Amino acid sequence: MRLRLLLITFFEILFIRVWSYKPVVLLHGVLSAHEEMEALGEMITKSHPGTEIHNIASYENDNSVDISLWNQLHGIVEKMRPVLTHPDGVHMVCHSQGGLLCRAMIETVTNHTIHNFVSLSAPMLGQFGLTDYIRIAFPNFAEDHLYLVMYTKETQEHFAVSNYWHDPFHLKDYFEYCNFLTSLNYGHQPGLWLFAYSISCFFDT
Q: How far apart are CA 142 and CA 139, in angstroms?
């Protein structure tokens, strides 16, 4: 009888482990909050009841731009590490700037178990263009002159958007100061980074 109960318990655990859905991590975009992703979470649980949803409520609204992406990344990883290393694996769905942060997690967390990553409108190659919040933050700068403020050490440390500001007309400054996006795109291929930097210097002279 005891052995029978143990076998039943074992097969119940095995069945749940095999057939349950993997947890899903959601991350909001710039100047937004976790509420932005709640509707998506509800859609997932409606289609796949029992799915474990982790809607990250960190660096929301103004904090999403006032804190550098490296610091945001470290904070989110420390908070979410048990989920990112879930033994059954996890899926990630991330919007806008959150997509960059999720990509950075995949590239920097060595023991993660992320199986699938869905990026929604994330600026993987950077941003260049005036948006409402850029106009509010820098009302006295035209688009062509924003590199003067974006590509400084102080701005890189305190304004998240500068971490992926990609001005195609000032690539030398981009490679010199923008250390977040360039690290993701070229950090693991130093030869490619050096080539891109050399080309940028050639066209920027």
A: 8
Residue whose entry in the numeric block shows the structure tokens 């948006």:
131
Rg (CA), the chain: 21
Please return the burial class of 78, using the count of CB atoms within 10 Å of its CB with bins 0-12, 13-18 and 19+.
Answer: exposed
pLDDT digits (tens, 9 = 90+) for 18-30: 457 999 999 999 9
| CA angle (153, 157, 159) in 5-degree steps | 110
Residue 99 burial (10 A CB sphere; 0-12, 13-18, 19+): buried
Residue with tokens 């007309």: 169
CA end-to-end span of the chain: 83
pLDDT of residue 137: 87
Q: For strand 53-55 and strand 90-95, is the pairing parallel, antiparallel, or unpaired? A: unpaired
